[in-house]
Specification:
The chain has helices spanning about 15-25, 40-45, 55-65, 70-95, 110-120, 130-140, 160-165, 195-200, 220-230, 245-250, and strands at about 95-100, 125-130, 150-155, 175-180, 210-215, 255, 260-265, 280-285. By secondary structure, the protein is of the alpha/beta class. Strand 1, helix 5 and strand 2 (about 125-130) form a beta-alpha-beta unit.
């Protein structure tokens, strides 16, 4: 993938993005993935009120909400955490490079929008592997004229591809903020997600930051976890929630910014934040 500055783009309809996804895969109208299997990013889009999802995604999301009614608040609170965390990193800390892994479908207040509103020259690389997500990213995640965005089509587990392609835009000799929000619980223990995070963080210099949000197995009752496990059997990903101690391990060797490891709605909340209780842990840590 070549380094690329993005000019202002135009909005896409759901049909536009589906056509774009098919075209990118060389298809003639055929989707480059199985739309009958639910995907976490498209379910998340549906719960947040988006339109870029399929019946399988909507059905799975509704089934999830039936067993875990607080999931809608968790999705909203996680999205709000993204804005606050990126605002902190770009504003309070002065980070100018961002590697957003697990982008999700573009909505509002995306990483580059928040960062470039504070520092227009910020550079952001988005990483995802879903064709619909990537079609949205290329069309909607447009940079300011002073900054730049780029997009890497890669699975989180393919750290080599992520780092080599991100290095075409980001300077890994200077601090980078790595964000992995609501994505690591889609990685099973068998794929060693802690080693994946460690590999990414080993590639960035001292002064870099890591922001993570992650479903908390200790924040929801066992019956709800069992119900979620049943829903995840309908999805492309198998959800693996982890407890607070396991989430804390992702930050080994990093110094956590206040208030530490907390629920997503409790991390530096805004005065007018929506009330509720999420089932996701989060933190932001600085590499020593």
């Amino acid at each position: 993938m070549t380094r690329e500055k993005r000019a202002e783009g135009m909005g896409m309809t759901s049909e536009d993005t589906r056509a774009a996804g098919a075209a990118s895969a060389g298809g003639a109208g055929a989707l480059p993935f199985d739309s009958t299997v639910a995907h976490q990013a498209r379910m998340y889009d549906y719960v947040l009120g988006g339109k870029d999802n399929y019946k399988a995604d909507r059905d799975a999301a509704e089934a999830w909400l039936k067993v875990d009614p607080d999931a809608a608040f968790t999705a909203w609170a996680n999205r709000a955490f993204l804005g606050r965390a990126v605002g902190f990193l770009a504003g309070d800390v002065g980070i100018r490079q961002f590697l957003d892994i697990g982008t999700g479908i573009a909505t509002t207040d995306n990483t580059h929008q928040v960062a470039q509103a504070i520092a227009p020259a910020s550079r952001v690389v988005y990483v995802d592997y879903d064709p619909i997500v990537l079609a949205h990213a290329r069309a909607l995640l447009t940079s300011s004229s002073a900054g730049a965005t780029d997009y890497v089509d890669a699975d989180l587990r393919d750290t080599g591809a992520i780092l080599s392609q991100a290095a075409e835009l980001l300077d890994f000799t200077k601090p980078v903020a790595v964000t992995m929000l609501a994505v690591l619980h889609a990685i099973p223990d068998s794929d060693d997600p802690h080693a994946i995070v460690a590999t990414i963080m080993d590639a960035v210099p001292s002064g870099s930051y890591l922001a993570i949000s992650h479903g908390g197995s200790d924040l929801i009752p066992r019956a709800t976890r069992d119900g979620i496990r049943g829903v995840s059997n309908q999805m492309q990903q198998r959800i693996a929630y982890r407890d607070r101690e396991e989430v804390a391990r992702f930050f080994a060797g990093l110094d956590l910014a206040a208030p530490g490891l907390v629920r997503v709605e409790e991390w530096r909340p805004e005065p007018d934040s929506r009330a509720g209780r999420s089932s996701a842990w989060c933190a932001v840590g600085r590499k020593r």
